[in-house]
């Protein structure tokens, strides 16, 4: 009896001390894309805590990154796991290849690490027009083989297949969503693919980018790209479709897809939004104010659960992206490295209201390199002939996308501009002394050269996280990644020396 009372007392004490443990999850939880193409990735355990602290309970990975997957084990976060386009052909070519992929990248993480994988996203925007049909024939067979492999692995009840597609797989001849249909060159393929997903409990995933509409067309009506603020008059560009008024491009775009699906008798397929967001740098329309405006409108809709005229319930929406990634390809544009709601280190870029008036909160426990920067020497001439080569070199191995016109560092004078490039290289090289040695043009300073919107960043000390990380199983890969990076950097530094010697 006394023991039982004591146990009860302890339980009550625990409940009082840790109320969060007993609090129910928010009804409308959030989902995000977690990309890992950063030179100094935010450690997995810190990223998972960042997700949880901000109410994200679903995450999408572009590949089976072991570090991310291990950190997601037993986290309560559901995972959509990507199978990259470059594996489509081999997985389409043999069931055995699909089985190997599932065993190594899905089964292992589910059973050994307790990762709650719910979807395999086969390919990433494989029907994008710019791929010129390269992945078209492999996609459906790859989906079928992955499905067969999931069945064989005994995972088919829990893990379903999907294909994330770009919004250019459908269109509307007269601009009205109700006229939506699939792009003619892939219409047959779309019908077969969606039919297969529908028959196997899968979902269709669609990526919608109002920012790219604006980026691609200088005449695109700006206010139509955003969700209307409550009480504001509808955009002049709103589309009247029968008795429905479409006031923003997201609703119109999503319903164009739904109309296309209904036209082919596929209206029963669940549709999720795989990517949507707004970048904060690297283009004149990419800044914190615009991103906040777009993402707050989006989050408000998610929290309210308010869908579109054709699908009144908001689907799962994976915001793009959780974090900035300074080593992504800039082929799409300089903005590509700046999609994060959070900076590379998990600090918020702007305020966002979540459910119940809560604000987003920063990552905890991040360790940084020392507070020092590499800058152009005061007594060096800004017209020194060696500068152009040195800056070009620095920017080849680090991220200078903030220096472009209209970007956060686009207004620096010539000297600060050079300093910015030097510092990016120095930080990318983990502040090695030899990385601030641009032909005697550079010097290390402890005075922060940041000015206005332009931040001279200090990178995450991935080495210190490696030494102190609590998850020993994650250590080998981190060590591997940072040592291969040092190898690249040693080459870069050797190149730097030769470049400057001649
Ligand atoms: C950065 O990207 C390049 C090009 O994709 C790649 O070769 C390199 O390994 C990446 N570096 C890191 C540290 O991931
Ligand atoms: C997944 O599994 C395949 C084996 O089919 C393997 O080659 C690959 O490296 C694994 N990891 C990723 C990230 O795809
Ligand atoms: C700043 O640096 C970038 C990258 O090297 C260059 O494209 C740009 O023209 C420079 N701007 C100024 C004002 O020097
Ligand atoms: C570097 O420049 C400073 C000042 O311009 C000069 O005093 C110094 O001798 C130079 N060092 C080398 C190694 O050229």
UniProtKB/TrEMBL annotation:
It is a lipid-anchor; GPI-anchor. PROSITE patterns: GLYCOSYL_HYDROL_F17. Residues 1-17 form the signal peptide. Keywords: Cell membrane, Disulfide bond, Glycoprotein, Glycosidase, GPI-anchor, Hydrolase, Lipoprotein, Membrane, Plant defense, Signal. GO terms for cellular component: plasma membrane; side of membrane. It holds the Pfam family Glyco_hydro_17. This is glucan endo-1,3-beta-D-glucosidase. It comes from the Eukaryota. It is found in: Cell membrane. One of its GO terms (molecular function) is glucan endo-1,3-beta-D-glucosidase activity. The keyword Cell membrane applies. It is an enzyme of class 3 (hydrolase). It catalyses: Hydrolysis of (1->3)-beta-D-glucosidic linkages in (1->3)-beta-D-glucans. Its EC number is 3.2.1.39. The keyword DNA repair does not apply. Coiled coil: none annotated. It comes from Sorghum bicolor. GO terms for biological process: carbohydrate metabolic process; defense response. InterPro entries: GH (IPR017853), Glyco_hydro_17 (IPR000490), Glyco_hydro_17_plant (IPR044965), X8 (IPR012946). Belongs to the glycosyl hydrolase 17 family. Residues 372-456 form the X8 domain.
């Amino acid at each position: 009896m006394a023991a039982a009372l004591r146990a009860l007392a302890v339980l009550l004490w625990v409940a009082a001390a840790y109320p969060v443990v007993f609090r129910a999850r928010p009804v409308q939880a959030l989902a995000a894309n977690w990309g890992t193409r950063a030179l100094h990735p935010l450690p997995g355990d810190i990223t998972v805590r960042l997700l949880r602290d901000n109410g994200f309970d679903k995450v999408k990975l572009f590949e089976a990154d072991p570090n991310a997957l291990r950190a997601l084990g037993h986290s309560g976060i559901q995972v959509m796991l990507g199978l990259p386009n470059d594996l489509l052909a081999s997985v389409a070519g043999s069931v055995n290849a699909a089985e190997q992929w599932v065993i190594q990248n899905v089964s292992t993480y589910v059973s050994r690490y307790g990762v709650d994988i719910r979807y395999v996203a086969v390919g990433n925007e494989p029907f994008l027009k710019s791929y010129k049909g390269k992945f078209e024939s492999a996609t459906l067979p790859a989906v079928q083989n992955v499905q067969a492999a999931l069945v064989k692995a005994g995972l088919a009840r829990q893990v379903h297949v999907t294909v994330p597609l770009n919004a250019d797989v459908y269109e509307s001849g007269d601009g009205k969503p109700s006229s939506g249909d699939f792009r003619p060159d892939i219409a047959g393929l779309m019908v077969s693919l969606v039919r297969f997903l529908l028959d196997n409990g899968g979902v269709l995933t669609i990526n919608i980018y109002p920012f790219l509409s604006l980026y691609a067309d200088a005449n695109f009506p700006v206010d139509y790209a955003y969700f209307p603020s409550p009480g504001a008059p509808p955009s002049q560009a709103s589309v009247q479709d029968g008795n429905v008024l479409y006031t923003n491009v997201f609703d119109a775009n999503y319903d164009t897809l739904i109309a296309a699906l209904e036209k082919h008798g596929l209206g029963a397929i669940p549709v999720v939004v795989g990517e949507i967001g707004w970048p904060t740098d690297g283009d004149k329309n990419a800044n914190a104010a615009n991103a906040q405006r777009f993402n707050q409108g989006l989050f408000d809709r998610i929290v309210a659960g308010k869908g579109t005229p054709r699908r009144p319930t908001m689907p799962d929406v994976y915001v793009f992206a959780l974090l900035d990634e300074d080593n992504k390809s800039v082929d799409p544009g300089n903005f590509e490295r700046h999609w994060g709601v959070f900076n590379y280190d998990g600090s918020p870029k702007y305020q966002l209201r979540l459910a119940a008036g809560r604000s987003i909160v920063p990552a905890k426990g991040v360790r940084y390199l020392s507070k020092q920067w590499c800058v152009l020497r005061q007594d060096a001439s800004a017209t020194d002939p060696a500068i152009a080569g040195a800056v070009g070199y620095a920017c080849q191995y680090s991220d200078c996308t903030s220096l472009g016109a209209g970007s956060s560092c686009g207004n620096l004078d010539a000297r600060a501009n050079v300093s910015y490039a030097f510092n990016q290289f120095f930080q990318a090289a983990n502040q090695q002394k030899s990385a601030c040695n641009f032909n005697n043009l550079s010097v290390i300073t402890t005075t922060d050269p940041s000015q206005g919107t332009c931040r001279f960043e200090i990178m995450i000390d991935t080495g210190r996280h490696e030494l102190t990380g609590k998850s020993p199983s994650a250590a080998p890969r981190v060590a591997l990644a940072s040592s291969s990076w040092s190898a690249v950097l040693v080459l870069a530094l050797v190149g730097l020396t030769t470049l400057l010697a001649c």
